[in-house]
């Protein structure tokens, strides 16, 4: 990327006062520009151009029901840096989905440094959660997405039910997805299963 080119930021923040403050701080930096501000992730899919960085308040995501954040924003394999904008602590399985974390109490220099760090991290280590899953975990994820029970999965792979449960726990931990519908959507979006598998 050309050093003169500004990195485009999409801010997803429901609080107008926090959004205004963030835009004021980042707007003074020569390396970034706020391309848009939206209050919920639902508007993201209507956007014509994609940002380089998404800064998002984690409270706008329901982690118990929604599939993981990276597959939501990077469904076509885009390498977008995703940074949490927080004022509180979150569970590790939530925060590991982000490339960085800005606290609303950080000063200007710290905010800019964290944005640069998140971009560098993404460029050096592009994220692909599927690489984190073992081959067996992917197989079990597909079986879960197809609606198979633990017993059916155990019989199919000739393993114990306890091993299936252990694999499922590891899959949920690695992906940060705790529901079967969420895992199913993740499998579909990452082309592990096809919609025709459900007919």
Structure write-up:
The chain has 199 residues and is of the alpha/beta class. It folds into 2 domains: 7-127, Response regulator (Rossmann fold, 3-Layer(aba) Sandwich), CATH 3.40.50.2300; 130-198, Orthogonal Bundle (Arc Repressor Mutant, subunit A), CATH 1.10.10. The protein is built from 8 helices and 5 strands. The chain has helices at 16-27, 69-73, 92-95, 108-124, 135-145, 150-157, 161-175, 180-189; strands spanning 7-12, 32-38, 53-56, 81-86, 100-103. A 5-stranded parallel β-sheet has the order 2-1-3-4-5, covered by helices on one side. Helix 5 crosses helix 8 (180-189) and helix 6 crosses helix 7. 28% of the residues are buried.
